[in-house]
Structure formats: C-alpha cells, structure tokens
# Entry
Amino acid sequence: MGTLYLICDAVPARRNITDVNLTLKGRLGLAVAVRPGVMPLDASAFTRPFWRDKKMSALFEPITLGGLSLPNRIAVSPMCQFSAIEGTVQPFHLAHVGGLMMSGAGVVIMEATATEAIGRISHDCLGLYSDDHEAALTDLVAQVRSYSNGAIGIQLSHAGRRASCRSVRARVLDPTGSEWLTEDEGAWQTCGPSSHGYNPEWHQPEAMDAAAIRRVEGAFVHSAQRADRAGFDLIEIHGAHGYLIHQFLSPVTNHRTDGYGGSLENRMRFALELVAQVRAVWPRNKALGFRMNSTDWHPDGLTLEDAAVLAVELERAGVDYIVMSAGNLAPGCQIPPATPGHQVSYAERMKKAVSIPVMAVGLIATPSLAEEIVSQQSADMVAIGRGMLDNPRWGLHAAAALGVDVPYAHQYIRVRPNNWTGYAIAHPGGKKIVSTQQLDRPKSSSWDRPDIARGAS
Ligand SMILES: Cc1cc2nc3c(=O)[nH]c(=O)nc-3n(C[C@H](O)[C@H](O)[C@H](O)COP(=O)(O)O)c2cc1C
# Structure
C-alpha cells in the first residue's frame, strides 16, 4: 500500500504554532497529495514545527517567551522618543508604534516608561504611574489591536540619578543648553543608590533609604499592573544603561554599606526583589524580560561573569528572557568602537549560563547578520533599534531577503514581493522573488505576477 504524503510548502511565519496547525488543517483538502519522498503524514506533522524541514530561516522560526508565543525572533528594541506630554502618549506614539506593528517583527517593545514621576529621564518621557497614563496607553493598544494581532510590549524604567535631564527634543530645540535641567526648566530632586551624581556638574541624587527602595519597588509593581490592564503582552524591566537598577548593580555607582551595597549579592538585591514583586503580579501567559549590562566597560565595573551570576538569579526569580546590552553607566567607561553585532558575544556567553531565551542587541543592521546570530545559536532573538527607525518594514524586508514567505497586512499587500514587480527593483541584490505561495492573493486579481514572470509555479 502506498503512503500518504503531505506537501506542506507554505506556512505563514507570523503565526503561533496553534494557528499554523489550524491553517494547515484548513488547507488539507488542497494540500494533501500522494507523492513519494516528501514528508509522511502522521500525527507529529501537526505538533512539531515542520517548517524546520524546509531549512528556510532560523530568524523566522517561532519562539516562546514565558507564556507568549511569537512568530519570529525579531524584536523592536525599546527607544525613547521624548514625545510625551506629562508622561502621556501623544498622536506621534500611535503613528510610530502603529507603524512598527507592521514591521514584521515578532514583538514591538515600547520605549523606557517611567514608573514614577522622578524616574523620568526628562519632561518628555513616557510614564505609567497615573490613571491618565494608563487610559491613554490602553487606548493606544486597543487601536493597534484593531489592525494587528502582533505582540506589543513596554519597557518599565526608572532613571535614578540620570533623571531630570533635557530631552533630545529640548536639546534639538536649544542645542546651547546643558544636558541636565536647570531650576528654571523645572529640574527635580533625583534619587540613586548613593549620593554621587553622574558627574560633578549633574544633579546630586538623594541616596535612597529603605522606605525609598520599597516605594520604587512598589512603583514598578503598580506600573506592571497598569501595563497588564492596558493590554500589553510583555514587560521588559530596564536594568541597563546606567539607570536606577543598573546604578544599584554596579560597584562604580553603588557606594552603599547596607544590605544593598558591597558584595555582588547585595548589589543584586534591589533588582531581584523588584523582579520577584513584578513577577508576582504579571500574568504567566505574558512575557517578563530584563535588559542588563553585559559589562560596564570600566576597570572597576560589572564584568561579564558578574552578569552571568545575575542572569542565573533573574531566571530563578521568574524572568522569561534577558537582553544583553552594555554602556552608558558613567563618564569613565571605556567604550570600544561599535562594530556589527558587537555585543553578540555577550549573549553567547549568557546562553551558557541560563536556559531562558537570550536576546542580542547592538548594531544588528542587516537580515543576514540577524540570521547568522540566531542560526548559529549565539542568541535566541535579536532586538533591532535604529534599523527599525530607518526602515519600519525591516522585518518584512528581512523575510524577503531570507526567502521566507510571510503574510502582509492587506493594506500593504500590493508591495509584497509576489505582487509587485517593483520590489526587485527597489531592493536590488537580494533574493528577488521569494513567494510562490499566493496565500493572500485575491483569485481574480490582475496584479503583477513577478513570480510567474520568473517561472515559479
Ligand atoms: C533613539 C534611541 C532611543 C533609545 N531608547 C532606549 C530605551 O528607551 N531603552 C533602552 O533600553 N534602550 C534604548 N536605546 C538603545 C536601543 O534599544 C538599542 O539597544 C541600541 O540602539 C543598539 O541597537 P541598534 O544598533 O539596533 O540601534 C535607544 C536607542 C536609540 C537610538
């Protein structure tokens, strides 16, 4: 008796496994054929990620962060936009985040969002510590959900001693001013693990006592609850770049002599307490991440091995993924020149320490580098920052460049590589026509058929 084989050519990459299975079942009538040598039709075909057999792209394989399934390994890295008013999102944010929701990334992570007013870097930063903030973000999430089922996250942050600054917006408007706010500009009292300022000219922070530590931990918890009610799928806690949590972690900025200073164990206490408290209120079917500095690039600072110790403790505390960043702690840091993927080796080291997914970030500008990082298992995911500002369709273009067939929003379907001869002209040098599937082409369409023109079936 002959064997029944399943020809499974096209699987939309931007679906979770359950959706894919449904899609596949729905297409069985068309897709099943008797043909030897492809893939036996058995129960496992419905339960395992069978597109691995196609060896298409590691970057476009699905991944799960905690309870959150993502269709691919691309995240939009959080990026401050300095466009909020009194901490509240504005029309700009809907345009910005709304556009990125159609970037083809598996998840869009919104910018550093302060958990209390004095934790904002500047007057123009987002906040999530009032009912008004929550209502506006709830509205934004609802609006993007009206056209996208993609995952959306938010980074929760506290700037500590690096708060009370002039924003990029303010500095562009008046390039002559200082980096920090003056009294006239509404400067506020900052706080930190110790009373040492970022540098002698900056504001002097107030060293946080036990009550202040409890207050800030509570602020993260309240913001996490607000983020949950607003409909976010993911929270990333900002533990890097010289902001408050990192200020506690690093011996360069933490001069305390109590249980929150001194040894690495003590310096990690604030971060770990805070994570545990957020974890307790953040649903398990969503994702909780932590962005950390892999190294301080400072002779007296955190090392990669310190970061590995922290990563293990974060996993134990319930974090679902970590992002390995670096830089920005203090003026004395010796920052090496940035080269493509210059922080990837940190992620690679961290993958040896933890079993949760590890994200790499930093000058990952091309799809081929992103693919290489994931396929060589240097990191489980990549976060793309400036690449996404430059090209808010970065993920879709990456799919095309890597020959992966992903669905487009119907509004933009006319520029899908299989529907537009101009795609190959606009993106010369890549794999020109990648889609032979026509999953989302209206049957009677008279649109371009560049795939047919090139002889694809
Ligand atoms: C405009 C801008 C704003 C940023 N804001 C944040 C932020 O809010 N939180 C954060 O963790 N990193 C922030 N970063 C750092 C990026 O998330 C990212 O780690 C960095 O830009 C390196 O990645 P890239 O080379 O892909 O841009 C920002 C970077 C840029 C360019």
User: Anything to note?
Assistant: The chain has 16 helices and 15 strands. Residues 77-80, 111-112, 155, 238, 240-241, 291, 325, 361-364, 384-387 surround flavin mononucleotide (CB under 6 Å). Residues 1-54 have pLDDT under 50 and may be disordered. The radius of gyration is 24 Å.
